Amino acid sequence: MPIKISFRRFKLLGLALLGLCALPAALQAQTGTLDKIGQSGKVVIGVRESSAPMAYRIANGEREFGGYHVELCEKVLAQIVPQAKIEYMALTSQNTLPLIQNGTVDLGCGPTTNNQARQKQVAFALTTYVSEVRMAVKADSGIDSFGQLAGKTVAASAGTTAVQLLRKYGKQQQMEFETLLGKDHFESFLLLSSGRAQAFVLDDNLLAGVVASSPDPKGYKITGEVLGSEPIALVLRKDDPAFKQAVDQALAGLMRSGELAQLYDKWFMQPIPPKNVALNLPMGQTLKALFENPNDKPLEEFRN
Predict the structure, then answer these.
(1) Domains, the chain, with CATH or none
(2) What string of H, E and C letters represents the secondary structure of 23-79?
(3) Which pLDDT value is given to residue 304?
(4) Where are the transmembrane segments (predicted)?
């Protein structure tokens, strides 16, 4: 005997089934990062391909990715989840926050500025680097100040805070210049090296890394006033206090032991791959003070 189901009951049944199908996704969203790592046996870290010396593709046979923040992430995870296998995922400035936010990446190890706008989407660990936004130009360009960029073309990488600082400077100085955005730092540097742009604006450490990796490191110089100092930190999911606490505790321990200072020296003062050129960027007093008294203040509070 056929069973008769009214349209209303059929509709309600369908909604109930849809709810059941959505349940695992909802439960997954509520699962903390530490639980997620424990269940999967792996941890996914977000790296960069062209952000030397912070995070970049080395591909020298020994390892594919390296850098100050990459090795820092590895040391932190070795303390928190020593049994987990680390998987590396190359990210860009534009997709870092979304992939952290949706749980695809567990820990962002690229150079990401901690600011209040980004804190609405993700959380930041303790500050582990302080960058100064300046510019790279050709050594024989005669350019030493941002004031000399009027009427010229300036390169910057899409999605970086350097873009915002550059535009702010232009408005404040009532100066007009053309801005070309590269998809990553290599492409932005190519705009400079090819002559399409007369300057490339970015964090000083990243500029030093790109210049050191270029075919002619002595053909460029980092110059200009400091447009802004920014706290750089590892990135993790928002509203996951257990994972943030674990990461922050591990970082604080590395700061106290002096291991983080040694790591800085390795990547900023010693020759680094692929060309074994030293960046020679000594640790600034601001970062030294942060290692003594760690905090996770965003850019807006950091400047005050």
Answers:
(1) 40-131+230-301 (3.40.190.10), 133-229 (3.40.190.10)
(2) HHHHHHHHCCHHHHHHHHCEEEEEECCEECCCEEECCCCCCCEECHHHHHHHHHHHH
(3) 54
(4) none
